[in-house]
Amino acid sequence: MPTPTSPPARIAARMSDIAPFHVMELLARAQALEAAGRDIVHMEVGEPDFPTPEPIVEAAARYVAAGRVPYTPALGIPALRAAIATFYRERYLVDVAPERIVITAGASGALLLALGVLTNPGDEFLLADPGYPCNRHFVRTFEGVPRPIRVDAACNFQPTAAHWEAAWTPRTRGLILSSPSNPTGSLIDRNDLIDLISAIEMRAGTLISDEIYHGLTYATSASSALEFTPDAFVVNSFSKYFGMTGWRLGWLVVPEAYLRAVEKLAQNLFICASAPAQYGALAAFAPSTLDMLEARRETLATQRDVLLPALRDLGFEVRAEPQGAFYIYADCSRLATDSATLCHDLLDQAGVAVTPGVDFGEFEPASHLRFSYVANVSRLQEGVRRMRQYFAARA
Amino acid sequence: MPTPTSPPARIAARMSDIAPFHVMELLARAQALEAAGRDIVHMEVGEPDFPTPEPIVEAAARYVAAGRVPYTPALGIPALRAAIATFYRERYLVDVAPERIVITAGASGALLLALGVLTNPGDEFLLADPGYPCNRHFVRTFEGVPRPIRVDAACNFQPTAAHWEAAWTPRTRGLILSSPSNPTGSLIDRNDLIDLISAIEMRAGTLISDEIYHGLTYATSASSALEFTPDAFVVNSFSKYFGMTGWRLGWLVVPEAYLRAVEKLAQNLFICASAPAQYGALAAFAPSTLDMLEARRETLATQRDVLLPALRDLGFEVRAEPQGAFYIYADCSRLATDSATLCHDLLDQAGVAVTPGVDFGEFEPASHLRFSYVANVSRLQEGVRRMRQYFAARA
Question: Are B120 and A272 within 8 A, CB to CB?
Fold first, then answer.
């Protein structure tokens, strides 16, 4: 018979380098407060506050109502891969063969495939700090070594060719770029991107370009790495711009020479991405859907234009103008000594949920917060009012 | 500027140990023949030929029509975790805390989480050969070492405590059990399972029990490892029994001591499983749905009872009675010298698609084929008729 008491866990070493999302604990606390009747203004959220566009919902519903919902090909349904290729041609004026476009379970699935075929144990990937924390954990998952690059307002919170050169070692395998960036909303400049790609390719490295916030840019637009090289892995998603977070659908553009490896890995690790999501996404590129998405983008721009000056007025410092995504990365050192404590107090005492800097890296997390501006203008204003009251009472 | 010609690929070493599905190439060929007007009998398929049950489709459609489709908690929606716990109580008479049930993107997501938290580089996992090929590739993905155990009709194609003892080394971390098995349809005997669990736990190893074909058993039923130990990782899926393949939804039952690690990994690697699939699956356990699934199980039993004697009559040898899943693993050595060639010829000359043994391991693949009996009785009979004609013409 099995032993009556459970043995101690033998947890793989990688797990001690993989951090939880602190915002999740904050979110759980926010939900507990709401369950107890408190009203909470949510500025911690990482997804747009819009429903999935109706044409997408309807296309998915039609598909599942029609009968069987079988596996799709591992790389995705051909019609969707072709639709994305057309989107690249129309929006970026760049030709990408549909065969190079792989449909995945969100950007998460795309990063698993890219890093799975690229990373040998000990291989190093450079990433911006502050940056999206999962990216370094994907590297660690495959026994690679994430190397943070400290970025700040001087470089618009984006890595540059000079960073690459300074950080490069013979173990450096590549760089993960996120533009627009989470948490800073910053974009890499077009010429800086060209220089960065050159520098990486001169060292036979590989660029992974995370473009999941493309489309959500204000008074500017983001360049795709695909405009300048066929040798980058480009990660994108239907989550943010297309409003499909909960459906879990994204894509990976794969350099020709890696396609066979990516296909093998996708067959084995995933079988395929969600079929209803794939058929729904066929409606994502219809002109009527894109019009709707553009209107939403303008709404987000308005929300940004409300929150950004209000935060500065409260005493937060925002050093680089956020130009994309829906985040503002704010320095709180004039207002508090520790951002995690401030987040805790803002939630408990002011009823405002914000994400602490600790979720985004090791570079000055204690003096930073991430505000999300997906809530509507009146909720954002209510959040600002509450924070003003909180800081005034404390003064 | 980037270099004008692409550099050679630098593909991670793991990819040379990760094999493609050969059946995929066969499937592509079958589809090409169909596109050219040929009629093909499909006996290579790895999914039931039923639509998703209507109550599931309706529950998913209601959910997405109601508005936003946001991320769910990383471990899944609480109502679904609770419904699965109730299912364990009712069907297996075993208490599993809902907190230990993690919702995943298919069994694939569950295996990624289980092996991600268990596997250090060099750790060995034992697996049955023949067996489902992805399982060994999941181990390799995390730099673990898959160790095939040669199983045959004498042990009903299932690993035993004696196998574990004989194969164990200080690097052995655990064993992946699949019962019912793909490709053999065999089940581990209840007492053999108890002995195997004891043997593994005596060595402080961990059992991963792949139970994705549970519910699809004929004139018998499968035991869950959860009936005998709280310390196994149990992988299950809504794909096969519940008819939700294309939705990509499964679950993992996690030993208490590993829960926090699994949650961290799920947050980072997946964010969450498909929300529409999760809300759809809430209808999977309704009595009316379960009645429908039982009727389908009986249909599969009938199809097995048609195909199994017919294959034997054709000259295939089936040494262990398949009791579950929807596969028959047949020895073709009296009919052909190489199963891959036979598969190729059956497709081209007889219009019958079958999976070659090479997809299931290194133990006598050339003398085995896997037949799937998800097609209806008249199609199965047509397939048999064509094979009889083919073998007669060749004789």
Answer: no
The CA distance from A89 to A122, in Å, is: 37
Phi and psi (nearest 5°) for A101? -100, 120
Q: Does the structure show a pLDDT above 70 at B4?
A: no
pLDDT at A395: 77
The three-class DSSP label of residue B260 is helix
- Which one, of A221, A238, A324, lies nearest residue A282 by Cα? A238
d(CA B218, CA B324): 6
User: Which residue type sits at B72?
Assistant: T
Task: Indicate yes or no: CB of A108 within 8 angstroms of CB of B173.
Answer: no
Q: What is the mean pLDDT of chain A?
A: 95
- Contact residues, chain A, for B117 at CB < 8 Å: 11-12, 15
Whole-angstrom Cα distance, residue B197 to residue B199? 5
Domains observed in chain B: 13-51+289-394 (3.90.1150.10), 54-284 (3.40.640.10)
Partners of residue B69 in chain A, C-beta under 8 Å: 51-52, 57, 244-247
**What pLDDT does residue A102 have?**
98
Residues in B touching A3 (Cβ below 8 Å): 201
Angle at the Cα of A325 (from A382 to A253), degrees rounded to 5?
A: 155
Residues of B numbered 129-148 whose beta carbons fall under 8 angstroms of chain A's beta carbons: which are they?
A: 133-134, 137-138, 141-143
Q: What is the mean pLDDT of residues A42-70?
A: 92
pTM for the whole thing?
A: 0.96
Q: Does B35 touch chain A (CB under 8 A)?
A: no
Q: Which helix (H) or strand (E) holds A202?
A: helix A190-202
Does position A215 have pLDDT exceeding 50, yes or no? yes
8 Å CB contact between A342 and A330? no
pLDDT for the residue numbered B66:
87
- The tokens describing B215, both together, are 């519910």
Please give the Cα distance from A268 to B137 (Å, whole number). Answer: 7
User: Does residue A285 belong to the interface with chain B, where contact is any CB pair within 8 Å?
Assistant: no
ipTM higher than threshold 0.90: yes
pLDDT digits over B219-265, tens only? Answer: 899 999 999 999 999 999 999 999 999 999 999 999 999 999 999 99
* Distances, alpha carbon B320 to alpha carbons B53, B58, B250, B298, B305, in Å: 32, 40, 29, 20, 14
DSSP codes of every residue in B21-57? PHHHHHHHHHHHHHHTT---EE----S-SSPPPHHHH
Pairing status of strand A41-42 against strand A352-353: parallel
Contact at 8 Å (CB) between A379 and A41?
yes
What pLDDT digit, counting tens, does each position of B274-291 carry? 999 999 999 999 999 999
pLDDT at B375: 96
The conformation of residue B172, written as its DSSP 8-state character, comes to E
Percentage, residues of chain A above pLDDT 70: 99
Angle at B37 between CA B32 and CA B38, to 5 degrees: 75
Measured between CA atoms, the residue of chain A closest to residue B174 is A10
List chain B residues with CB under 8 Å of A71: 46-47, 245-246
Q: How far is A291 from chain B (nearest CA, A)?
A: 19
Instruction: Select the residue of B69, B108, B247 nearest A244 (Cβ to Cβ).
Output: B69
Q: What confidence category does residue B23 fall into, taking pLDDT thresholds of 50, 70 and 90? A: confident
Question: How far is B393 from B395, CA to CA, in rounded Å?
Answer: 6
Contacts of A61 in chain B (CB under 8 A): 61, 64-65
